[in-house]
Design a protein that fits this description.
By secondary structure, the chain is α+β, with helices and mostly antiparallel strands. Helices cover about 50% and strands about 15% of the residues. It is built from five helices and five strands; from the N terminus they run ββββααβααα. It has helices at about 40-50, 55-70, 80-95, 95-105, 115-135, and strands at about 1-5, 15, 25-30, 35, 80. The mean pLDDT is about 85.
Length: about 150
């Protein structure tokens, strides 16, 4: 956007050119290396985990966009890959437990079967917590007067 301005001291006119600053999210890997965030890569990883499961391409695309927007709203744009995985898993746990475990299996590390069992149990706890939070109504309305 071009703007015409005038110097407050001398009255001389000039133009400025303003642009939106590009905000690049950097994904910090476990080994310390970083790479630019790639929404397409996130979408593909969700679709791979959701193969032959109830994960539609529209759902995966919407989830990837929501996650990118959430990352852009944070104070820092250097995000550990584990945090991104957690954001994906928060969404998958409500959609499909099998897809959740498939996606989470990439983060099991050396633990193997025990880590997988822990993840399944954690997914059940997350699902229950989310259902409770979603169905519970506040005891006092948010706009109640303090009188």
């Amino acid at each position: 956007m071009r703007r015409r301005r005038r110097c407050a001291d001398c009255g001389l006119g000039y133009q400025t050119l303003e642009r939106l600053a590009r905000m690049d999210i950097r994904v910090v890997k476990d080994d310390g290396q970083s790479e630019p965030f790639n929404r397409g890569k996130l979408y593909r990883s969700i679709m791979i985990a959701g193969t032959k499961r109830p994960v539609t391409s529209d759902w995966a695309d919407e989830a990837a966009i929501e996650i990118e927007n959430e990352l852009l709203s944070r104070e820092t744009l250097d995000v550990p890959s584990k945090q991104i995985a957690d954001l994906v898993m928060e969404r998958l746990v409500m959609l499909d437990e099998v897809t959740y475990v498939r996606y989470a299996s990439g983060y099991f590390g050396e633990g193997g079967v025990q880590d997988m069992l822990d993840t399944i149990n954690e997914s059940r706890r997350r699902r229950e917590r989310t259902e409770i939070e979603r169905t519970n109504l506040p005891l006092v309305p948010a706009d109640a007067d303090d009188t």
